[in-house]
């Protein structure tokens, strides 16, 4: 029997429990994977709490992982037993030691990329690529505001934006996180808990504002992010770590002819050609050293509840990765 974290009721981290599960043989177009590393994301916390009601219960949460192909189903081409693959899926099921996966979601990993790093960076990196090249195509000379610049997505976003020739203003919640943001290439860092980030952004930009604001914090920063926009500036909200954003009057955008987006990465990688192109761009940036990432902090799969607690209380000093091989029966 395989092991999986089962979610039977919404609630706090304690509702995540390890259970034995049966995994059958792969059907047509499927792979059977022995998983080696599983990414932990805020999305998982939203699903567990019930903020996102996108996983039918009972179900196995988790949206990204790395594994080894054990068996292929009928009609599968391009994959063979022994291949190392990574994936991101809106269909969940990643918090498990073994699973079945549609082959169309799998990406072969570059030979030099460790499993732990791939599980740490794939979803975050695809999100950064989406934000910088799809949702708002950043060009040289533009000025960006990146909230949570020391976070997993934030650091990738800042490094990549600098490579594109943008000026990056990052916000962080502490002095230690501010140093991480600077190390990620931010030209200016604002500790938003101690100073008015709107006033600082306007001072830095000589009252012009920013071309695009990337906001994953949500409720606490949304209004301020809107105030930071330049004429025809673009606010991209891609998360809500501080809570859901209240209902929004679209007429507020008219003050500076602004635009607002709420992208979901799954919609951008739904077609195989787009998934391959976006992942190739990410892998190339990592291989070149233009964007750097470190493998996340490993925890056993059985400690998924603790991982969620660390993430939600902002105690995690690095991205978190679950290791199925440390699972107890």
What does this 3D model show about the protein?
InterPro entries: ADH-like_C, ADH-like_N, ER, GroES-like_sf, NAD(P)-bd_dom_sf, QOR-like. Keywords: NADP, Oxidoreductase. Pfam families: ADH_N, ADH_zinc_N. One of its GO terms (molecular function) is mRNA 3'-UTR AU-rich region binding. Residues 11-322 form the Enoyl reductase (ER) domain. With 329 residues, this protein is an alpha/beta fold. It folds into 2 domains: 2-114 and 295-326, Medium-chain alcohol dehydrogenases, catalytic domain (Quinone Oxidoreductase, Chain A, domain 1, Alpha-Beta Complex); 123-266, Rossmann fold, CATH 3.40.50.720. It is built from 9 helices and 15 strands. It has helices at 42-49, 115-135, 152-163, 175-183, 197-204, 222-227, 265-268, 272-288, 304-312; strands at residues 2-7, 16-21, 30-39, 64-72, 84-88, 98-102, 107-108, 143-146, 167-172, 188-191, 210-215, 229-237, 259-261, 297-300, 320-323. Strands 3, 4, 5, 6, 7, 14 and 15 form a 7-stranded mixed β-sheet that branches. The protein has a 6-stranded parallel β-sheet with strand order 10-9-8-11-12-13, sandwiched between helices. α2 crosses α3 (152-163) and α2 (115-135) packs across α8 (272-288). The radius of gyration is 20 Å and the shape is globular.
């Amino acid at each position: 029997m395989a092991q999986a974290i089962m979610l039977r009721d919404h609630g706090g981290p304690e509702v995540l429990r390890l259970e034995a599960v049966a995994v059958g043989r792969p059907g047509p177009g499927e792979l059977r994977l022995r998983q080696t590393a599983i990414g932990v994301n805020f999305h998982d916390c939203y699903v567990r709490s019930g903020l996102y009601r996108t996983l039918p219960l009972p179900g196995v949460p988790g949206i990204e992982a790395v594994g080894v192909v054990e068996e292929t189903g009928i009609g599968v081409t391009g994959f063979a037993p022994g291949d190392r693959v990574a994936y991101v899926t809106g269909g969940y099921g990643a918090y498990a030691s073994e699973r079945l996966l549609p082959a169309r979601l799998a990406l072969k990993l570059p030979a030099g990329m460790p499993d732990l790093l791939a599980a740490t960076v794939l979803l975050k990196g695809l999100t950064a690529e989406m934000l910088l090249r799809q949702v708002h195509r950043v060009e040289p000379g533009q000025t960006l505001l990146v909230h949570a610049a020391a976070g997993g997505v934030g650091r990738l976003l800042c490094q990549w934006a600098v490579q594109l020739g943008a000026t990056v203003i990052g916000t962080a919640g502490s002095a230690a996180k501010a140093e991480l943001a600077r190390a990620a290439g931010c030209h200016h860092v604002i500790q938003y808990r101690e100073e008015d980030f709107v006033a600082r952004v306007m001072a830095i930009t000589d009252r012009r504002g920013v071309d695009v604001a990337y906001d994953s914090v949500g409720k606490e920063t949304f209004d301020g992010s809107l105030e930071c926009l330049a004429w025809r500036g673009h606010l991209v909200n891609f998360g809500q770590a501080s809570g859901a954003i209240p209902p929004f009057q679209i007429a507020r955008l008219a003050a500076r002819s602004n635009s607002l987006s709420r992208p979901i990465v799954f919609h951008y990688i739904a077609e195989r050609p787009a998934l391959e192109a976006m992942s190739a761009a990410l892998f190339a940036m990592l291989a070149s050293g233009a964007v750097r990432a470190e493998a996340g902090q490993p925890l056993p799969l059985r400690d998924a509840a603790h991982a969620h607690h660390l993430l939600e209380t902002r105690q995690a000093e690095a991205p978190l990765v679950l290791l199925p091989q440390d699972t107890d029966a």
